[in-house]
Amino acid sequence: MVREDGKRNFVLVENDGTESSVFSGSYPRQAALKAARRLHPAPSQDDIDGHAVLKLRERGTDKVHVYHGWAWMEAKDEDAPAWMDDFVTRSNVSKQGIEHRDE
Questions:
Q1: CB 33 within 8 Å of CB 89
Q2: Which pLDDT belongs to residue 103?
Q3: Residue 4 — very low, low, confident or very high, per pLDDT cuts 50/70/90?
Q4: CA distance linking residue 21 with residue 19, whole number of Å
Q5: 39 by DSSP, 3-state: which?
Q6: CB 59 within 8 A of CB 8
Q7: CA distances to 41, 42, 77 from 84, in Å
Q8: 3-class SS at 89?
Q9: Do the bridges between strand 63-75 and strand 87-100 make them parallel or antiparallel, or are there none, so unpaired?
Q10: 83 or 3, greater pLDDT
Q11: Distance from C-alpha of 77 to C-alpha of 81, rounded to nearest angstrom
């Protein structure tokens, strides 16, 4: 269901079928990128060795958006504020399709 600000809520579906975290975004990919940043990051983009499967159910619907996601560490930008850590987590996702829940 769409909120007043145009954003939608997506719930992360775990392997055992339980739903844990909620991510919001105008599009499912925005929520998937936020979820992917919580993955254990690789030391660099060149060292990525695998992808995690992220399943995000859109609240109020039976749609489950399936993504492959991965994350890595990168040095912060030169113009980043001083309070930021020296390294930041970056992520990327690739959509695999949409499933429909049977309930």
A1: no
A2: 62
A3: confident
A4: 7
A5: coil
A6: yes
A7: 18, 19, 10
A8: strand
A9: antiparallel
A10: 83
A11: 9
Distance CA 70, CA 72 (A): 7
Query: Rounded to an integer, what distance in angstroms lies between the CA atom of residue 73 and that of residue 50?
Result: 15
Residue partners of 31: CB distance under 8 A and separation at least 6: 8, 10, 23, 24, 25, 56
Burial class (CB in 10 A: 0-12, 13-18, 19+), 13: buried
Token representation of residue 12: 């992360």
Per-residue tokens: 34:
């936020």
pLDDT of 16-54, one tens digit each? 888 889 999 999 999 999 999 999 999 988 888 889 999
Kindly report the length of the chain. Answer: 103
Count of CB atoms within 10 A of residue 1's CB? 8
In this predicted structure, what is the pLDDT of residue 20?
Answer: 86
The encoded tokens of residue 76 equal 């912060």
First to last CA, the chain: 18
